[in-house]
Amino acid sequence: MPSVIYVAIGLPGFIRCPVDANPPLTLVKWKKDGLPLRIDKYPGWSQMDDGSIRVAEVTEDSLGTYTCMPYNALGSMGWSPPAPLVLTDPPKFSVVPGGEYRQEAGRELVIPCEAEGDPFPNITWRKVGKPSKSKHNVLPRGNLQLKSLTKDDHGEWECVATNVATSITASTHVQVIGTFTHSTHVKTYHYTVLLSCF
User: CA 192, 193, 198 angle in degrees (round to 5)?
Assistant: First the structure.
């Protein structure tokens, strides 16, 4: 068991009993606050095939200290160390990026993205698809700074806010002006006309 179980209040959550069993796992027993856990007493709770507990919506009913005992065909190694469950606030965006940003090649572009939560989320940015080779920074509040835009910056970008509870994503599109060459293709057709005289 992890030393602390973090779950986001108001969202689905899992209480996991990490097991590496050979032969495979056959059963996992649980205790909550030192007493056998009766999952059927908690609406929206279920036990998964891997022994984890799935909570449909995490509430204060989830608070407690959990231990698990995994079994396989050879028996069990005993109860895991107790792990308290801590409720966290999932991250939520306080500022989201707009749908699209257009800027000329060689110029700077700053795209806003800020989030809050408990614990406070970490914000990272990633380019979808082909990674950008150009220099970009995540500013202290989470905004993306693209210095001297190049054609590598063109495309979909995602702002990802993560804390111990979960991750959330907001996306935007960057269009870099002046980086694409336009070519004209001319198709020529040759016709042969056969004239006959009678």
Answer: 150
Q: Model's pTM, two decimal places?
A: 0.68
Condensed to tens digits (0 to 9), the pLDDT of residues 140-169 reads 999 999 998 998 999 999 999 999 888 999
Cβ pair 43, 55 in contact under 8 A: no
Torsion angle, CA of 146/152/154/157, rounded to 10 degrees? Answer: -60
Closest CA to 94 of 81, 119, 112, 106: 112
Give the CA distances from residue 15 to residues 8, 18, 53, 99, in Å, rounded to whole numbers and listed in that order.
12, 10, 5, 36
| Distance, CA of 55 to CA of 69 (rounded, Å) | 19
Cα 187 to Cα 113: distance, rounded to the nearest angstrom: 47
Q: Span 19-42, mean pLDDT?
A: 92
Neighbours of 28 (CB within 10 A): 22
- Measured distance CA(55)–CA(44) in Å, rounded: 6
From 127, 183, 172, select the one nearest 152 (Cα to Cα).
127
3-state secondary structure of 39: helix
CA-CA-CA-CA dihedral for 169, 175, 181, 184, to nearest 10:
100
| pLDDT tens-place string over residues 82-93 | 999 999 988 999
Q: Could you give the CA distance from residue 143 to residue 96 in angstroms, rounded to a whole number?
A: 10
